[in-house]
Amino acid sequence: MPILQPIVNLAEMLFQKGITDVVVSPGSRSAPLTLAVARHGRLRVRVMADERAAGFVALGMAQQSGRTVAVICTSGSAVYNLAPAVVEAYFQDVPLLLLTADRPHEWLHQRDGQTIDQSGLFGTHVKRSYDLPADYTHADARWAIERSVNEAVNLSQLFPRGPVHVNVPLREPFYPNPDETFRYEQVRVVETLSASPQLSTDTWHQLQAEWERTDRKLIAVGQMPRDPELLSVLQQISDEWGVPVVGELISNLPRNGQFITRTDTFLSGITPDRAETMRPDLLLTFGGSFLTRNLKTFFRQYPSRQHWHVQPTVDRVVDPFQSLTRLIPGEPTAFLQKLFADLDYQHFLQGDDEDDSRTYLHHWQTADRQAARLVHQTISDSDSPLTDWTATQQVLDQLPTHSVLHLANSMPVRYANLCGIDERQQISVAANRGVSGIDGCLSTAVGAALATDQLVTLLIGDVAFFYDRNAFWSAPVPPNLRIVLLNNDSGHIFRMIDGPGRQPELETYFETPHGYTARNTAADAGIMYITCSTKAELASLLPDFFQPGDRATLLEITTDKRVNQSEFANYKQRLTSL
């Protein structure tokens, strides 16, 4: 098949560019791409029948590894099914390479099957789109393909990372003859060197001076992967300079007595007088999105005089609190390490005694401790029934050290944030908070488990779980995956939100009760299945549930949505005492 030699070479290009994992959805038009990667021998190829699940599996693999994962699918509506995962990857800065087979463009609008306008289909939700030539005989066409794929893979990895689309028109024949063998030719690799932005000496001294003369400084961390070096320098800044460090579970800030992690509780209904004592003069932010509305509302209603945001590139103004005054190019860990080292040395030379007032830090830490006591009182009653919230606390307390936690959207990620994770557990937390949809949460966790030997635990609600069951379609499910399914037979979050929660149409039009259990789904997928409905049962099951084994395990926890609602209402009533 000499006319398709550039497609065979494309697989070698992926390998030479550092891509090791490819997720493929079966199709005929995409057969040349699929056969090229399948016969390569040094690429790990995973087959997922459902393109929507395939996209999210690739997303989970890329989240976990930090490397670009390639996705291959056939033409037509199959390509559109990648869209939910693509937009999540785009807003979460996750690198994907989308290789979509297509008919040659002259067949568009000619009533041919599986033919849509795929060029630029993902619009502004990819970093760039490429459209390869449909004819490969001319040397210029081969040069263009090689150049474009080099550029596409490089672009997926350059900050901000993200998905890149390569549309691949293909003519018949798609399949080699039985006696044909693939020959992977040497390809030309174009390496794009990365360079970290560097502030001028004058600019750096200006930032240091402004930092030093500002009294109330606060650092707020958005969603980020777990980074021990970052946690270390944040701890030093808070310990030695009295600066509050605020974040959430998806920020990978553990509960250690120093970081402020319970803002959703103590900022609820905060009085204006108290808010003024906690308003920062200088707010330093970095990372992705913030989860809780109360934290975002506080920073919007009580904006800081100065707001610095640190991010690797400054081509887009990120201003979620509507207070940004300075966008600083840089990698957050390196920025904070230099800030701390330079100012700490300056203090040493000046003979400072580090006797700065800790009053501002005390305000935040006192509020955090009060919130911790309130949450503990709310969910620690031994006589109270099992709820989604108390089950979440039991699960998080038992997570094995150095494991991975994936949090599905809707209520699971919020319950987990209220509970928090202790620093000693060393847990890495991930969640699809780029777009924050429930679609693909199960598939993303499957992808994460495929990309690591660590135990991966997914906490997921019933609607999100059943919506994404095709994550299990292509066996085997990785044995290091543990799924905790909170099944309250409803779209539970709508019962918690004041608007839909007060409507007579709540149960029919918002909650969508279904009556399903996961027993048959687990059996079909070859997953070990256990279930419980009481605190005592859950406590007895968790130690064995987290043990390594040769099969994935699903623990279905059955709760009553009305009891969940009542217990959460009790918590909201307690908030008035803060």
UniProtKB/TrEMBL annotation:
Record-listed E.C. numbers: 2.2.1.9
Enzyme's top EC category: transferase
Domain Menaquinone biosynthesis protein MenD middle: 209-376
GO molecular function: 2-succinyl-5-enolpyruvyl-6-hydroxy-3-cyclohexene-1-carboxylic-acid synthase activity; magnesium ion binding; manganese ion binding; thiamine pyrophosphate binding
Cofactor(s) recorded in Swiss-Prot or TrEMBL: thiamine diphosphate; Mg(2+); Mn(2+)
CDD domains per the UniProt record, alphabetical: TPP_PYR_MenD, TPP_SHCHC_synthase
Pfam family, one: TPP_enzyme_M_2
Cofactor note: Binds 1 thiamine pyrophosphate per subunit.
Catalytic function, reaction form: isochorismate + 2-oxoglutarate + H(+) = 5-enolpyruvoyl-6-hydroxy-2-succinyl-cyclohex-3-ene-1-carboxylate + CO2
tRNA processing listed as a keyword: no
Span of domain Thiamine pyrophosphate enzyme N-terminal TPP-binding: 10-120
Keywords associated with the record: Magnesium, Manganese, Menaquinone biosynthesis, Metal-binding, Thiamine pyrophosphate, Transferase
Keyword field contains Transferase: yes
Family: Belongs to the TPP enzyme family. MenD subfamily.
NCBIfam families, alphabetized: menD
Subunit structure: Homodimer.
Free-text function comment from the UniProt entry: Catalyzes the thiamine diphosphate-dependent decarboxylation of 2-oxoglutarate and the subsequent addition of the resulting succinic semialdehyde-thiamine pyrophosphate anion to isochorismate to yield 2-succinyl-5-enolpyruvyl-6-hydroxy-3-cyclohexene-1-carboxylate (SEPHCHC).
Protein name: 2-succinyl-5-enolpyruvyl-6-hydroxy-3-cyclohexene-1-carboxylate synthase
Organism: Fibrisoma limi BUZ 3
Gene: menD
